[in-house]
């Protein structure tokens, strides 16, 4: 347990940030799953609609520091390649 006032505040901030990061990560995973199911179903129209949403969500995660910039770029590139091969 925290012994100082600043350590207690840090503990509170960590809890809230962890919750926010988990929701962002969960949302991005859900979008990626929807995109991949559209690819598997060979539904190009739905996949074309979902790709910008996935890219936007990954960009927001980079901006807030949930994931690194190169990780988002790699994921975006791989998803775009999957769409292109469809």
Walk me through this protein's architecture.
There is one protein chain. The mean pLDDT is 96. The chain is built from three helices and no strands. Helix 1 runs antiparallel to helix 2 and helix 2 runs antiparallel to helix 3. It has 86 residues and is mainly alpha-helical. The longest helix is centred in the N-terminal third of the chain and has 36 residues. The chain has one domain: Methane Monooxygenase Hydroxylase, Chain G, domain 1 (Up-down Bundle). The N and C termini lie far apart (54 Å).
Which terms would index this structure?
86 residues, mainly alpha, Methane Monooxygenase Hydroxylase, Chain G, domain 1, 3 helices, 85% helix, elongated
SSE order: HHH
State the CATH architecture.
Up-down Bundle
Q: Helix- and strand-based class?
A: mainly alpha
Query: How many H/I helical runs?
Result: 3
Q: What is the H level of CATH, i.e. the homologous superfamily?
A: Ribosomal protein S20
Helix content: over 70%
User: Which stretches of 5+ consecutive residues score pLDDT under 50?
Assistant: none
Instruction: Report the principal-axis shape.
Output: elongated
CATH names the topology as Methane Monooxygenase Hydroxylase, Chain G, domain 1
What is the class in the CATH system?
Mainly Alpha
Tally of individual domains: 1
Average pLDDT rating? 96
First and last CA, distance:
54 Å
The percentage of residues in β strands lies in under 5%
Radius of gyration equals 17 Å
């Amino acid at each position: 347990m925290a012994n100082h006032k600043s350590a207690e505040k840090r503990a509170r901030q960590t809890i809230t940030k962890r919750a926010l990061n988990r929701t962002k990560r969960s949302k991005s995973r859900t979008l990626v799953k929807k995109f991949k199911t559209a690819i598997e179903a060979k539904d190009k129209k739905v996949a074309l609609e979902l790709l910008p949403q996935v890219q936007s969500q990954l960009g927001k995660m980079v901006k807030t520091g949930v994931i690194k910039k190169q990780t988002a770029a790699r994921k975006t590139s791989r998803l775009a390649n999957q769409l292109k091969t469809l």
